[in-house]
Amino acid sequence: MTTSVDIASSATIRHLRGSAQKARLVVDLIRGKQVGEAQWVLASTKKYASEPIRKLLDSAVANALDKNPSVNPDELMVKSVFVDEGFRMKRVRPAPMGRAYRVQKRTCHITIQLAAVSGEEA
């Protein structure tokens, strides 16, 4: 079994509205999969973060093709994908008896790295 793996490309989305914890649920579904299978999984997932992550995956594939036109998109796989917490927008919500509740609107940063897998697998 001979395989060679190298980083083909990466793409990042920053300040995506939504918590990192909820985005990690979607990201865990595609880690280590082929690009075509990952796109299918994201298209059939009913989570809020699946649509921006699908667009991010398409962007990473386009970056790989731009970087090396001879790469086959079918041979690309999601090597690593991770979600970092972004800033929090702090807002105030009126509460009973003149009080105020603090509302934190969370954001996250998502990075996808694709690898070109070539060679024969036994």
Q: Which terms summarize this structure?
A:
Ribosomal Protein L22, Chain A; 3-stranded antiparallel sheet; 3 helices; 31% helix
Architecture (CATH level 2) name: Alpha-Beta Complex
Helix-strand makeup class: alpha+beta
The total count of helices amounts to 3
Assign the CATH class.
Alpha Beta
Binned, the helix content reads 25-40%
CATH homologous superfamily designation? Ribosomal protein L22/L17
Detail the poorly predicted runs. none
Radius of gyration: 18 Å
Proportion of β residues? Answer: over 45%
Termini, distance in Å?
5 Å
Mean pLDDT: 92
CATH topology: Ribosomal Protein L22, Chain A
The total number of structural domains is 1
Q: Count the E strands.
A: 3
Largest sheet strand order: 1-3-2
Helix and strand arrangement:
Elements: E1 2-17, H1 20-30, H2 35-43, H3 50-67, E2 76-94, E3 100-120
Helix pairs in contact: 2-3
Can you describe this structure in just a few lines?
The protein has helices at 20-30, 35-43, 50-67, and strands at residues 2-17, 76-94, 100-120. With 122 residues, it is an alpha+beta fold.
Describe the 3D structure.
The protein has a single domain (2-120), classed as Ribosomal protein L22/L17 (Ribosomal Protein L22, Chain A). It is elongated, with a radius of gyration of 18 Å. It has helices at residues 20-30, 35-43, 50-67; strands spanning 2-17, 76-94, 100-120. It is an alpha+beta fold. The chain has a three-stranded antiparallel sheet with strand order 1-3-2. α2 (35-43) packs antiparallel against α3. Helix content is 31%, strand content 46%. The N and C termini lie close together (5 Å). It is built from three helices and three strands; from the N terminus they run βαααββ. β2 and β3 form a beta hairpin. The mean pLDDT is 92.
